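Hi R.,

As promised, here are both runs. First protein below:
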Amino acid sequence: MKPTLCNALCVVLLLLAAPARAAGILSGTVVHASDRSPVPEVRVTATSSVLAESRSTVTDAQGGFRFPELAEGAYSLRFEKESFQALSRTDLVVKTGQETRVEVALAPTAPSRPSVLAPTPSDNDRERAPAWTLQHLPVLVPDGAWQTVYRASLGKPVSGIETRGFGVNPTIDTEESRVSEFPVAVDTGAYAVARDYLSRDVLPGEGVVRTEAFINSFNQGNEGEPYGPFQLYVEGFPSPSRKGYHVVRISVTAREAVREVGVQVEFNRQSVARYRLVGYEYLSPSPEPLEAGDETELFPLAAGQTVTAIHEVKLSGPAIAFGMLRVRYEQGTSTSWRRVQMLMPSSTLRSDYGRATASTRLAYVASAFAEKLRGSFWTRALDWPRLLALWDGIGEPLRGRKDVVELGALIRKAQALDTRKDRFERLVPAGSSDFDDVPALGN
């Protein structure tokens, strides 16, 4: 046998004999908090700074789940299932060649009965629905479908999971709470699901649409100013769908890998009367101070990764800045909290949609598309032709990008498939809508 051929065979044999590089495993079981029975079909999402993108699975009939072949590092898990309170576990360490197991107990959400709660008459904007006392109420509307709306509660304040876990987020009065928070972990899979439905000429169900997934499915560039390991960007313009409100886009981009990231927006009460976080209904925590030791859900951000949120904001007076953007994080091997903050100057609020950057216009169109699909009350004044006009107004070069072209095609497809009637028309005619509150419901 020739020496070169012999050497090549030896190399192959050595490679075959070498042990395969072991990877770590993250697994566990999800049980019912009351009787410890297994809970199947729970959506489990794993995120980590060592992952290029999040990974998801569902629990089997025994409540078990398993993520094989994970790179070594720290992971966070998110557990979600309808009729159960969402739960997160953080700081789960995966090591090469080892299996990390966890057991999670999910508690059911409190049952609610279909009911109608009459509003308290008031002409004072400041006396309208307070922030964390807004209840979610499933209401049977005239077309026979269920629509979740929010009305002011006459009882004591309830927890954030009760007010923020269902339906469309409420509008909050800054006299009651001026703080809005949103997690940096966003699963964009919901946009892919909706896109698949539309490709098959089926309008996606309102329950499968997640607005934050639509917004964050599009690369919006690297705009903003550097603040520590982040690039922060804020911009707004008058809302095309909600009279008297401004759309405010907030983007946080990691310039370096960071751990345990929390984002908080604190609105200036002298400048902002009311606000609504668009999307994040299944993820957003209750409004609490962003301080060490609180229960805010924190997740890692990989270098180059961006999270974007949109708020609807009602201005009440002039001010140099209408709020403050804060980001808390850990970095490197340090376990101490660090924080950066940026004033949100009123000068970033443009006079109209066309003066905002193309990336901000794209983020808004994506969010409005999702809200239209969800049947949100706040987009009833924005019909499909107007939404298509706003898509066309995104402008070049973004409008010609492949994914943005596809977005326009999906909007046209949804317009053709949407045969739903305005479910609120019998309750409140479109011409008399209250842009601060959901309709006054009656029998």
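And here is the second one, sequence first, then its structure tokens:
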Amino acid sequence: MIKQLLAKKNLTKDLNKSGIQLEKTLSAKDLIFLGIGVIIGSGIFITPGIIAANIAGPGVVFTYLLAAIVCIFVAFCYSEFASAIPLSGSVYTYTYSIFGEFAAWIIGWSVFSEYLFSESSVAVSWSAYFQNFLSGFGIKLPDYLKSAYGSSGNLKGGFDLFAFLIVFFVTVLLLQGMKESVTINKIMVYVKIFIILLFIVVALFYLKPNNFSPVLPFGLSGLGRGTSLAFFAFIGFDIVSTASEEVKNPEKNVPIGIIASLMITAVIYSLVAFALVGAVHYSKLNVADPVSLALRLIHQNWIAGFVSLGAVLGMTTALIVVLYGGTRLVFSISRDGLLPKKLNNLNKNNIPVSSTIIFGLLSGLIAGVIPIDKLTELVNIGTLLGFSVVSIGVIFLRNSKNTKHLNPSFKTPGYPVVPLISFILCIYLMLNLQSFTWIAFGIWLLIGILIYIIYGYKNSILHNKKE
């Protein structure tokens, strides 16, 4: 039993393209757009104001730059793994290759929670923005269909209809094929970036130097805490690595996609924060829509509508990429036998249809019935656990008997210092999460362990030693 729990993935077979494989259709440019699409979501319209008003003041600009540096450390580690093991499944596959089956299941189950609850929470936010947009035309849903039961601000809520419908739409879109999904994602990203740049340009015309004094009104501690919060605005870049198996020349293009999308979004986040605190005093930005507030305060209401559109598009692209990442994770786990075989069946468009439908249906239903404040509890801890494993895993990648023969085209700079720093920072951020989050995560892990004992252990491809 111990031998099976520690059994490692047969990389020779998988890398030689035996078994069920996904079609290679994505370029480096496609990956960059996927990365930008998922990283720049609703957070860019919300977090800069919260961080500035409560934690870092005008120093919010530096919090995004520092957070980006931390993320780039993690991205370096992801890039080395992706160039060494260009297979679907991201951190689950990497863990299976160096730490064994049981550890891979735990990590895969944890990251599954990240994708599942991220998809659901973004869908709920999308629904709220879209309902606000429709209300401008006098269109309103019945209270029961506006939000889930227990949602703040709506005591009569029962089911969030629009949250369910947007996930359903994205699921149908992904079933059409990756080329179609990537094309629509690109269009939305272009429009979203245009709207963001429009805000930056307009706000800079109203920049007041006095708004930047003092730079750090809450002290250096505020800079540190602000960086911790800003870090989560970049979550999602890891999903780019789930596409490895569908990428042309993945050894080269996946690292480019991960690192380039991070650097581009870091610049965009910093520019938005700079324009925001430059145009409006940071003390006024503690609201849910700081960008819209800033535009109203500088009497540019006409642009506020474009910003709302940008928020909707930003969340739509995030929904596309997160759902994509979740389905590829389920596909990979199923292909190894730890989940039912039906979940890795491919349709005529070379899409894992069962895993896409089930993941989409499950996340849509969760979005419909669970309030957003409950959904977000499990997202961060699953993400950070995956980040920490990838960071420390690079050291094992270069030394494990199962992987040391690999020759990745990208190698983490500053090895082994950078992986160790990345690992320590991720663990530090995990330890700063609320106790409730740890309790909920513990329950989630227990459920995962039961699934592995009941199904995964007995049906594992490695356990049965069959194709």
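A quick note on the second one: The two ends are 20 Å apart (CA to CA). Let me know what you think.

Best,
J.
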